[in-house]
Design a protein that fits this description.
Layout lengths: L1 E17 L2 E12 L6 E7 L11 E11 L6 E7 L4
Parallel strand pairs: 3-5
Antiparallel strand pairs: 1-2, 1-4, 2-3, 4-5
Organism: Dictyobacter alpinus
Protein name: TRAM domain-containing protein
Length: about 80
């Protein structure tokens, strides 16, 4: 699955355990390409920071979808798709 849109926020330099291993990640919120009112919370794994600024286009490959039971928030664990 691909998530693509405009970068709304980013928080670099974070760490997590994913599939039993420690990974760097950047927490991002992106506005959907087709419906900009829809926002997605994503963790871009294996990146300390990303060279994409707020308001710029971002394309992510979804590795895992996580729903937090208590809050109902859906989060996407992703890898950055580098486009040139």
């Amino acid at each position: 699955m691909i998530r693509e849109g405009t970068l709304v926020t980013k928080e670099p330099g974070l760490h997590t355990i994913f599939q039993g291993e420690e990974h760097n990640y950047v927490r991002c919120v992106i506005a959907d390409l087709v419906d900009p009112e829809r926002h997605f919370e994503c963790r871009v794994l294996d990146e300390t920071d990303i060279a994409i600024g707020i308001g710029e286009h971002i394309k992510l490959e979804v590795l895992k979808v996580v729903t937090e039971r208590h809050s109902g928030v859906v989060r996407f664990d992703c890898h950055l798709i580098h486009t040139e």
